[in-house]
Amino acid sequence: MDKLEAQTELAFIKKAIADSRRVTFDYGMILVIWGIISVLGFLGNFGILNFLEKSPRIEGVEPNLFFWMWIILFFIGIVLTAWILIKKQNAGNSLTYIGRIIISTWVGCGIAVFIISFMGSKTGAIQTWAISPINSTIFGAGFYICGIISNQKWCRNLGFGWWLGALLMLFVGDTDMHWDFVIMPLLTFFLLLLPGIIIFFIEKRNA
Fold it and tell me: What is the pLDDT of residue 84?
């Protein structure tokens, strides 16, 4: 009986790992979407910071421009993500238990990022420069957890990259150089958008 239970548990673990890897590769487009949205947002940051704030017509209102730009981009990301998930569900790609854990992990990370980025800055509870390192820490936790669940070392290691980036942004701190506007886009491109593109093409190749 013990041997049978051990075999059953081993089979369950193998299936769970296979399911989690399938989920990791099935949803590369979601990473691409959020990577593109983040890059567009950072480009908007540069535009507002370097050009728009110099205009006397909008002097003093740039914080609101940052806020509403990111709100719109965040909403677009949610709509596109929901569309992909619904499309895959209708195609018969139902989520397994492990898949729901992975998706739920990222939903939780997304909610945390939303609260930190929008509510934290809007209420003044969090300084603007600190938002990027905090969010980088959250992304690192998401990649690390999903990498452990799916037994994907590359995914887990992305988490270390995000954490190193967070530490770097914390060390450079609040300066007039706005280093977070440079470091965070680089992290987003190399640790979110680029992996998403690679995963997307792997998904297409395996389809």
Answer: 85
